[in-house]
Design a protein that fits this description.
By secondary structure, the chain is mainly alpha-helical. It has one domain (3-156). Helices cover 59% and strands 6% of the residues. The protein is built from seven helices and two strands, in the order H-H-H-H-H-E-E-H-H. The chain has a two-stranded antiparallel ribbon. Strand 1 (96-100) and strand 2 form a beta hairpin. Helix 1 (3-17) runs antiparallel to helix 7 (129-156). It is elongated and about 70 Å long. 12% of the residues are buried.
Length: 157
Amino acid sequence: MDGITKTKRVVDGLKKISNSSLLNTKAIDFLRSMKEEIEDMNTKQLLEGKQPNGSNISPDYISESYARLKQSISPNSQRGKYTPNLKLTGSFHKSITVVFKSDSMEIIATDEKSKSLLRKYGSVLGISEQNNKIILEDIRKYLYVFIITTLKLFRYE
């Protein structure tokens, strides 16, 4: 195979992988493989009393005795004494799941208390900026390997 033919194959490979829908599909596929990890990230944030934007979950507990009870049930030094973590029985945390669409994902909770908790405490479902950076870096590495592997296939055919 001459140099021009090899170059043409590499260019053809680049055209194929530069298709944004292909890369988006690969990224979503990778996120699907991280489903449990993403759910765990959200649950850990809640245990620390944090919303996805990094602020504390609010409103705070009013009762001293309830705050003590919650600390005894799920102690966490990252969470303030009066800061909610939305865990009493664990059913809300266990119901947190990632739902995938063709080109996006959403974190939802299916527990029967979800609507009332979300109404009272706001947007607690989602991942923090720090966790988002971790996921984006993992996606970047995954797509890099995909691109390099695809180019190698086109180069040597």
